[in-house]
Design brief:
The chain has 183 residues and is an alpha+beta fold. It is built from five helices and eight strands; from the N terminus they run ββββαβαααββαβ. The structure holds protoporphyrin IX containing FE.
Length: 183
């Protein structure tokens, strides 16, 4: 199985304890106590839900933005990064009906997603998983994952507020947020 695949299992086991789970918009997912992040495909296990995504090529970041990200982005699993956030997101049919250049314009020129996000590096580590091409029945389009030290939670909240107020987020019709602690 491709190592680009990751499955997030919600249930009673896993490295990450759920501190808070809330629905931002759209249908909720079942509340769980812990989340296990399993790379490289998923073997069956006891869980309440499993969300699967795959890392992919970039769609919107320019060459210069990719270079900046490579320079500044920290790795996952830093010992000090004991906080994580899993945010599954779905965008509506209106978004997917747009052409690539129109979506790009909304993401960066009109919402400043990449430039603003980059200013929070290296405090926040991130990984973007795509679900849309895994099948028609996927509950979300993206599984977004972030890790940071407890002292950087306020900065993360500020970034979330910025993004959720953006034009890009008007297309988000399902979003759930799970705040996690590694203990
Ligand atoms: C930590 C700072 C962040 C940085 C540096 C960042 C950077 C990026 C970049 C470069 C992309 C485009 C990738 C591509 O070219 O395909 C992207 C996409 C995305 N990011 Fe962020 N981001 C950050 C925070 C966030 C947060 C907090 C969220 C969720 C609340 C988020 C949700 C997404 C989603 C859903 C996409 C996919 C958009 C799409 O393809 O329609 N990002 N991000």
């Amino acid at each position: 199985m491709s190592s680009r695949i990751t499955t997030f299992f919600g249930g009673s086991s896993g490295l990450w304890r759920v501190e808070k789970q809330h629905t931002v918009i759209g249908a909720p997912i079942e509340p769980v106590a812990r989340v296990a992040v399993v790379p490289g495909g998923a073997s069956p296990r006891e869980c309440v839900w499993g969300l699967r995504g795959v890392t992919s090529n970039t769609r919107y970041a320019s060459g210069a933005e990719v270079r900046t990200l490579q320079e500044r982005q920290p790795a996952l699993d830093r010992p000090e990064a004991t906080r994580a956030v899993l945010i599954p997101i779905r965008k509506n049919a209106g978004w997917w009906a747009l052409a690539q250049d129109q979506r790009h314009e909304i993401v960066e020129a009109r919402s400043r997603h990449i430039s603003k996000g980059t200013s929070y590096l290296p405090a926040i580590a991130r990984k973007l998983h795509h679900c849309r091409d895994l099948g028609e029945d996927q509950p979300f389009d993206f599984l977004t994952w972030f890790e940071f030290a407890p002292a950087d939670e306020g900065a993360f909240d500020e970034l979330l507020h910025f993004l959720r107020s953006s034009e890009e987020w008007r297309f988000v019709d399902r979003e759930v947020e799970l705040r996690l602690v590694r203990d």
